[in-house]
Amino acid sequence: MSPRRSTVDAAVVGAGLAGLITARELRRAGRSVLVLEARDRVGGRLLNADIGDGKVVEVGGQWAGPTQARVLALARELRIDTFPTHTDGENLIEWRSRLVRYRGPLPRINAAVLLDVGQAQARIDRMARRVPLDAPWLAPKAELWDGQTVESWLRHNVATAGARDLFRIAVEAVWAADAADVSLLHLLFYTHSAGGFDDLIGTDGGAQQDRFVGGSQLLALRLADELGDAVALEEPVRRIEHSDSGVRLVTDEREVSAGAAVVAIPPALCGRIVYDPPLPAIRDQLTQRMPQGTVIKCMAVYERPFWREAGLSGQAMSSHGPVKVMFDNSPPDGTPGVLLGFLEGRQARVLGEWEPDARRRAVVECFRRLFGPEAASPLDYVERVWAQEEWTRGCYGCYMPPGGWVSYGRALRAPVGHIHWAGAETATVWNGYMDGAIQSGERAAAQVLDAMS
Ligand SMILES: Cc1cc2nc3c(=O)[nH]c(=O)nc-3n(C[C@H](O)[C@H](O)[C@H](O)COP(=O)(O)OP(=O)(O)OC[C@H]3O[C@@H](n4cnc5c(N)ncnc54)[C@H](O)[C@@H]3O)c2cc1C
Question: Is this prediction's pTM over 0.90?
Answer without folding.
Answer: yes
